[in-house]
Design goal:
Elements lengths: L1 H13 L5 E5 L7 E9 L5 E8 L9 E7 L10 E4 L6 E8 L5 E7 L9 E7 L12 E4 L6 H14 L12 H9 L2 H4 L10 E2 L5 E7 L4 E7 L7 E2 L8 E8 L5 E7 L6 E7 L10 E6 L6 E4 L5 E5 L8 E7 L8 E7 L7 E9 L5 E9 L2 E9 L1 H5 L4
Antiparallel strand pairs: 1-24, 2-3, 3-4, 4-5, 6-7, 7-8, 8-9, 10-11, 11-12, 12-13, 14-15, 15-16, 16-17, 18-19, 19-20, 20-21, 22-23, 23-24
Helix pairs in contact: 2-3
InterPro entries: Sialidase, Sialidase_sf
Protein name: Sialidase domain-containing protein
Organism: marine metagenome
Length: about 400
């Protein structure tokens, strides 16, 4: 059966026929499993991780779990532990393989059960292409130090683009409270959280997208020495632009698409950097609905862009795959990974996207039904997105 499945995939790719298959990484269960991340290892295996426990930031039993799908097989391995900070919730894991084939796991340990107190952590491995959990060789924390330009950028962005006419000294508007907090160095150095894969630029620069629930904005952690040292970009300012996914364009600019954690209308937000991630434009609405849920965008090998998102203004009851052939100017094709009536207890959320070496697109995401909760994995090709359906 495994050989037949592998041949089917190969022929679908060769003949450009639509291909789609999906499976649960593990059986439905009742614990909270969320915020998965997926990568392909150099030997063709798939590796995924997620956080698992009795809740999120308020549940101190939350840890990072993972599983592996060996190349050419259909069943994911038994779940194993990837990281656990004793007594603290571990959340929002992100996997990444760098240009030297080193595996990175980024995640947050939530201090005092508050997102804004989260500690950004990472560990690395060069021995991870075997059964079970990677053998970790190094672990450390990343402490960013956004300077005064952080506060200046937030003040300038809100002053230019946000109009809040009503306020009083006892009832300061949102923007004034954020600007005030941005001037405090201690707050600037904590609470930066992961969610989406990093990207590596042609220069070798690594960009790790981060966000803060304390400031309700995003930044990018920048490394120019293969991850040995990190610095903070200027913030991506706006009304709730969080959980950025970064997409490099052919002209050298970088687009950040973000979850909308702000006011209506609920739309995926967008910001642009023209200087390799150092500074960012004020985040503005796109035309794509977003119910305050995570989104990821991927550049395919042929230059086309694929987006995975909940394309609703309320609810996570459908997960869409969008395709652009003009670097995000338009998204002319859309196909659904899953759809359910809004009033049903079914949700598809927090996608993680990659393209494997054989050209297939892979997505992992949180999947919840009345049967329980799991992390779902699906693989498909571009033809599956563009095929006409009734």
């Amino acid at each position: 059966m495994r050989l037949i499945s592998f041949i089917t995939i190969a022929w679908s790719l060769l003949l450009s026929k639509p291909f789609f298959q999906e499976t649960s990484i593990f059986p439905f269960q009742n614990k909270h499993v969320h915020a998965s991340s997926i990568i392909e290892t150099p030997n063709g295996d798939l590796l995924a991780c997620w956080f698992y426990g009795s809740g999120e930031r308020t549940a101190n039993d939350v840890l990072i779990q993972g599983s592996r799908l060996k190349k050419g097989t259909k069943i994911w391995e038994s779940v194993f532990e990837m990281a656990d900070t004793p007594g603290l919730p571990d959340c929002n894991p992100v996997l990444w393989v760098d240009k030297k084939d080193k595996l990175w796991l980024f995640w947050i340990a939530v201090r005092a059960n508050r997102w804004e107190n989260s500690m950004l952590r990472y560990r690395t491995s060069t021995n991870y292409m075997r059964k079970g959990a990677p053998e970790w060789g190094w672990q450390d924390d990343i402490i960013l130090k956004p300077g005064d330009t952080f506060a200046e950028a937030i003040h300038a962005g809100f002053d230019r683009y946000v109009d809040e006419p009503m306020w009083a000294e006892y009832a300061l508007p949102y923007s004034k409270l954020i600007v005030k907090a941005a001037k405090e160095p201690e707050k600037r150095q904590k609470g930066w959280m992961t969610r989406i894969h990093p990207i590596s630029l042609s220069s070798g620069r690594i960009l790790l997208p981060l966000y803060s629930d304390g400031y309700n904005v995003s930044i990018v952690a920048i490394s120019d020495d293969q991850g040995n040292n990190w610095k903070a970009s200027n913030p991506i300012v706006g009304l709730g632009p969080i959980q950025p996914t970064l997409v490099p364009k052919k002209n050298g600019s970088i687009v950040a698409y973000m979850r909308d954690s702000g006011l209506e209308p609920k739309r995926i937000l967008k910001s642009i950097s023209e200087d390799s991630g150092e500074t960012w434009s004020f985040a503005t609405d796109t035309q794509i609905p977003n119910p305050s849920s995570s989104v990821e965008v991927l550049v395919l090998k042929n230059g086309h862009w694929v987006m995975a998102c909940n394309d609703t203004e309320e609810g996570r009851h459908q997960m869409a795959i969008l395709l652009s052939t003009d670097e995000g100017t338009s998204w002319l094709w859309k196909r659904y990974i899953g759809q359910a009536p809004k009033n049903r207890n079914i949700s598809f959320a927090y996608p993680s996207l990659i393209q494997s070496s054989n050209g297939l697109i892979h997505i992992s995401y949180s999947f919840k039904t009345d049967e329980g909760k799991t992390i779902q994995h699906a693989s498909f090709n571009e033809e599956w997105i563009t095929v006409k359906t009734r």
